[in-house]
Amino acid sequence: MKALAAFDALVNRALAAIAGVALVAMMLFTVADLVLRAFGRPVAGSYEVIGWLSAVAMALALGYTQRHAGHVAIDLVVARLRPRARAIVEALDALAALLLFGAVAWYVASYGTVLQRSGSLSETLKAIVHPWVYVVAIGSGGLALALLVDFFRALARAALRLPA
For residue 128, what are the β-bridge partners? Predict the structure, then answer.
């Protein structure tokens, strides 16, 4: 379990660092586009590039955000449960989310393969788009990994009757 948690931390920290770089790149690209627009020379395809970078920033930060409990959680009912019952509910919640995002990662990667085989290109820049789809699949996989760790931790709390 400790090895899996350490692997999860390493992977999701690395993905979050890449997400941060994408966010900075998106900011710099937007500023450059605005400055160039003021001189009548907008960057062609700026909406596409900013869209791709925002997808990278969002997708690759998912697992890190899960690891640090940064997602919105409403626990009005669960907070009133006894620790073991709460751990069981949290394990079921993590399992459901794990199955969902595992499926999302799989299907998004499959869609990337379809785009790659068909040679799909973006509208404005005529650039290949499948790498960006694969990055979203990787981000979903990072979230699934974090959820797997959460599932095992909740199971351990339920089995050992540990507090949350």
Answer: 121
**Is 113 in contact with 56 (CB distance < 8 Å)?**
no
pLDDT at 164: 58
Query: How many distinct structural domains can be found in the chain?
Result: 1
Q: Domain residues for 78?
A: 2-160
Closest CA to 147 of 69, 58, 55: 69
Separation CA 132–CA 57 (nearest Å): 11
Residues 66-75: tens digit of each pLDDT: 999 888 888 8
CA distance 94 to 92: 5
How far apart CA 132 and CA 126 sit, in angstroms, is 14
Instruction: State how far the Cα of 154 lies from the Cα of 6, in Å rounded to an integer.
Output: 17
CA–CA gap between residue 97 and residue 143 (Å, rounded) = 9
* pTM across the whole model: 0.91
Give the CA radius of gyration of the chain: 20
Residue-wise pLDDT tens digits, 62-112: 999 999 988 888 888 888 999 899 999 999 999 999 999 999 999 999 999
CB crowding 102-138: b at 16 or more within 10 Å, else e:
bebbeebbeebeebeeeeeebeeeeeebbebbbbbbb
